[in-house]
Specification:
Elements: H1 3-23, H2 37-48, H3 52-55, E1 74-76, E2 82-84, H4 87-95, H5 116-128
Antiparallel strand pairs: 1-2
Helix pairs in contact: 1-5, 2-5, 4-5
Length: 130
């Protein structure tokens, strides 16, 4: 097993653990003041890392697509295929911004230096915005 493969499995395990923590939260509201601790941390990461400048500080969308209602929704890709915005899609879209292009997307999401833990935190936040 290559080191790269081990790193990817480790990264995926980290994402799964953090998402599980977020799923165990008792808060289901999307209002920022009522977010779980995990989701609030993801919101802060999205703001401090610049994601919110395009996706909105509360996930309402701006230049980038809105995050409200994104998790587990159906997304049409640039090639016409329809996929579910599951954790894998969200992770890949954040980690490799140009790997999966949505239909009608204008501009390109910039690459970032987010850690797997930061990405997992943002995913918990996106999931809280259902």
């Amino acid at each position: 097993m290559s080191n790269n493969y081990r790193l990817n499995l480790s990264s995926l395990a980290t994402v799964v653990v953090l998402l599980t923590l977020g799923a165990c939260s008792s808060s289901s509201s999307s209002a920022p003041s009522e977010l779980s601790v995990e989701a609030a941390a993801g919101r802060e990461v999205s703001i401090s890392s610049g994601c919110a400048s395009c996706h909105g500080s509360d996930g309402e969308g701006r230049v980038g697509p809105k995050w409200i209602g994104l998790a587990d929704s159906q997304v049409t890709m640039s090639d016409g295929t329809i996929i579910t915005a599951d954790d894998s899609y969200l992770y890949t879209s954040i980690h490799e911004p140009n790997a999966m292009r949505r239909k009608g997307a204008v501009g390109q999401m910039p690459s970032n230096q987010l850690t797997d833990e930061e990405i997992a935190s943002i995913i918990v936040y996106i999931r809280a915005l259902k």
